[in-house]
Amino acid sequence: MIDPAIPRLYAYHRALREAKVSGKSTITSHGLAAMLGHSISSTQIRKDLSALGTLGRRGFGYAIDPLVEQLAFVLGLEQDWRVAIVGFGYLGHALATFITSRESRFKIASIFDVAPELIGTAWQGIVVADTSNMETIVQDAGCNIGVIAVPAPAAQATASRLASGGVRAILNFAPATLHLRAPVIVRNIDLAGEMSILTHWLTAADA
Amino acid sequence: MIDPAIPRLYAYHRALREAKVSGKSTITSHGLAAMLGHSISSTQIRKDLSALGTLGRRGFGYAIDPLVEQLAFVLGLEQDWRVAIVGFGYLGHALATFITSRESRFKIASIFDVAPELIGTAWQGIVVADTSNMETIVQDAGCNIGVIAVPAPAAQATASRLASGGVRAILNFAPATLHLRAPVIVRNIDLAGEMSILTHWLTAADA
Ligand SMILES: NC(=O)c1ccc[n+]([C@@H]2O[C@H](COP(=O)([O-])OP(=O)(O)OC[C@H]3O[C@@H](n4cnc5c(N)ncnc54)[C@H](O)[C@@H]3O)[C@@H](O)[C@H]2O)c1
Ligand SMILES: NC(=O)c1ccc[n+]([C@@H]2O[C@H](COP(=O)([O-])OP(=O)(O)OC[C@H]3O[C@@H](n4cnc5c(N)ncnc54)[C@H](O)[C@@H]3O)[C@@H](O)[C@H]2O)c1
Q: The CATH number of B81-190 is which of 3.40.50.720, 3.90.190.20, 2.60.40.420, 3.30.710.10?
């Protein structure tokens, strides 16, 4: 499945869970598009869901329960995931809070930093550790996903050490190119790139 | 141009500027892929650049200068952009620092919060304002882009007020659906969706 589709599937999964909680048992592609504030068209929704093998019934829409289950299956959200956060500054704090509040399947299982004022403090029951025993702590905590929120010069070493600790996928925010051997999956996030989507469309609109 | 291509173009733009600074005047698609840590294939690079009307010369590659200019043009990075940040907590701080350090075309021109301990403090010469005069301040500061980093319940009001102040595009991080009239462009960021790309691929790998 191509990457752009997955965040959309995640948005559907989230919205459908909310619809279910509010008592609905079926939904049309138009209803789902409306729930998403029309940030995704009903055409795109139908296309994505039929690519999963799910077809709505004309006049009826989709049954929510089986669709939520299928999306959870495809997204890997039928199991818990244990996340290691390295770099507990502004970004690390924002991510830790958001990730756990947003998706109960994501558990923050370890947090690392080098700042003395942070080490030893507790966040939601997790004690911030210094990085000296990162590999062991990550392994013992069973972390399968790592989040890198350290300054750029520290990113590569952090990535290698997370991989040694058994982490199999990394979300990297540091503005640095990471080199890791397969099978570790790395996804680089650059929010300035997201801003450039806005500036592209603003200048295209003026053109 | 479709959205997924734009962050790639932004990555090329950034890497090509670095290549130029390091003294290069030409680069091949393979060289550029290597600079990007092979997070994007050389095939994808050639595809994206030819879609812009730029073809490399076999054995020679691409001339960097004209390519950087063309990418800047397409991305809207030939002009400065003035950014309003609303919500100066953990995420707001991380974004303000990162955006300006990453892309000199993005200027933080106004910052808003409601917390008394933040209001009146200065960040890189910008005084954090309370939200009561947001529309006026945003207009006077000439902000064309807004970043929403407030809690979900405050997001819609924030968006409407930024739009009233003349903001034409919004990057929204709050987990809330925004309703705004055209022509304001809204882009919603959900980093839990990025995490689900990792969990999708990890479970697909196991399957
Ligand atoms: N990709 C994006 O869109 C994006 C957005 C915001 C920030 N960032 C990046 O994320 C990183 C963090 O940003 P921030 O605003 O939170 O900065 P910050 O300075 O507030 O936080 C960095 C934290 O990392 C810790 N640290 C430093 N070296 C370390 C090491 N070797 N191991 C463990 N921890 C270490 C510091 O003590 C600090 O607490 C920076 O690299 C920044 O450029 C990226
Ligand atoms: N989309 C994502 O991937 C993502 C990631 C991290 C955080 N978030 C979201 O971003 C937001 C901020 O997260 P955070 O960790 O920085 O939280 P935070 O509590 O540290 O910061 C929120 C800030 O907003 C201020 N605020 C509250 N109401 C306001 C209002 N009406 N106007 C202006 N400012 C107001 C608060 O005083 C505070 O400083 C939250 O909604 C969070 O869920 C989203």
A: 3.40.50.720
